[in-house]
Amino acid sequence: MENASKALLIAGEMLIAVMILSLAAYLYASFSQQARETARINAEQQIIQFNTQFTKYDSYRDEDNNSTITIYDVRNIINTARNNNQFYEGEEDKQVTVNINVQTNAQDIGSIPNCQDDATDERLSELLVKDIELIERRGIDAEGNVIGLPHYGCDVTIDDNTGRVSIVTLTREATN
User: Distances in Å between the alpha carbon of 151 and those of 50, 56, 80, 135, 137?
Assistant: First the structure.
């Protein structure tokens, strides 16, 4: 009788041990799934936050739906892309290319492809000088608004694989 009761106790202890191990495995799987989901959501939020640095310029429009991006915004876009590219140096899938096309009256007065080389700042300064010359020729109206300030359209390309902005193309819109 004593052996039978010991056998029942051992069987009960084994059953409890199996239940505890099963519960531990269930909790581990549950928490792992939750951790993966949280990591996925965080990654998506980081991509959205990153993309917003560039896609926000697409909404820079006036009441007539004309772009209001100026050469100063162009400089901000380039600097943002450069900072990103320096941070992710060597990770091609996280690099951002900025292309600037400058055309007025169908005459190409310059372009800056990829905006990553050392000549970019010099070329951008040339564009800024040209914008200032345009401003000086057109003048300022009675309310202090610049007449005919050149604006740039913004086209953002998002990579299908990474979901991140990969190319930003800025094109100077025709001025009056």
Answer: 24, 15, 19, 12, 16
Question: What pLDDT score does 141 carry?
Answer: 58
pTM of the model: 0.64
Count the alpha carbons within 13 Å of 31 in the hemisphere toward its beta carbon: 6
Rounded to an integer, what distance in angstroms lies between the CA atom of residue 164 and that of residue 93?
9
Angle between helices 71-87 and 2-55 (to 10 degrees): 150
CB count in 10 Å sphere of residue 3: 7
Cβ-based neighbours of 94, under 8 Å, separated by 6 or more: 84, 88, 162, 164
Give CA–CA dist 139/40, Å, rounded.
Answer: 52
102/127 Cα distance (integer angstroms) = 8
Angle between helices 119-138 and 71-87 (to 10 degrees): 170
Q: Are the CB atoms for 67 and 154 separated by under 8 Å? A: yes
Res 88 pLDDT > 90 = no
